[in-house]
C-alpha cells in the first residue's frame, strides 16, 4: 500500500507520590493523511492506584497527555474505557471528552476473550 504518513509516537505519563507511581496513562499520536495532515491521538490505560484516587493524580496525567496532544497539533483525542460507571464518565467529561460524538468498535484476535467491563 502506498502513502505512509510516518510512524505513530507514544508517550507515557506517570504521577508519583513519595517516589511511588500512583497514576499513569498512555498517549499515542497517529500521523494522518486527512485533516490537512494533522495527527490525531488515542489515550489509553488511564489508571490510578485505588489508594490514591480522588487526589488529582489521574486528572494530572490525563491533562498532561491532552496538553501534549494539542502541542503536537492533533486535531482530536479519543479515549476508550472499559468502565460502565457514571463517575468514570463524569471524570472524562470534566477533562473535556464528550460521550456520543463517535462510536468506538473493538476487534480482537480469534481466541482472545474480552474481560468484563469494570463496574
From TrEMBL:
PROSITE patterns: GNAT (PS51186). InterPro entries: Acyl_CoA_acyltransferase, Bact_Acetyltransf, GNAT_dom. Signal peptide: none annotated. Residues 1-119 form the N-acetyltransferase domain. This is GNAT family N-acetyltransferase. Pfam families: Acetyltransf_1. Keywords: Acyltransferase, Transferase. CDD domains: NAT_SF (cd04301).
Amino acid at each position: 500500500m502506498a502513502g505512509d504518513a510516518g510512524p505513530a509516537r507514544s508517550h507515557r505519563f506517570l504521577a508519583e507520590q513519595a517516589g511511588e507511581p500512583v497514576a499513569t496513562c498512555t498517549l499515542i499520536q497517529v500521523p494522518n493523511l486527512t485533516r490537512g495532515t494533522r495527527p490525531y491521538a488515542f489515550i489509553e490505560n488511564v489508571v490510578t492506584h485505588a489508594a490514591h484516587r480522588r487526589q488529582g493524580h489521574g486528572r494530572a496525567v490525563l491533562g498532561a497527555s491532552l496538553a501534549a496532544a494539542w502541542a503536537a497539533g492533533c486535531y482530536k483525542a479519543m479515549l476508550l474505557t472499559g468502565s460502565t460507571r457514571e463517575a468514570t464518565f463524569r471524570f472524562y467529561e470534566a477533562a473535556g471528552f464528550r460521550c456520543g460524538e463517535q462510536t468506538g468498535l473493538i476487534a480482537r484476535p480469534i481466541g482472545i476473550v474480552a474481560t468484563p467491563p469494570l463496574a
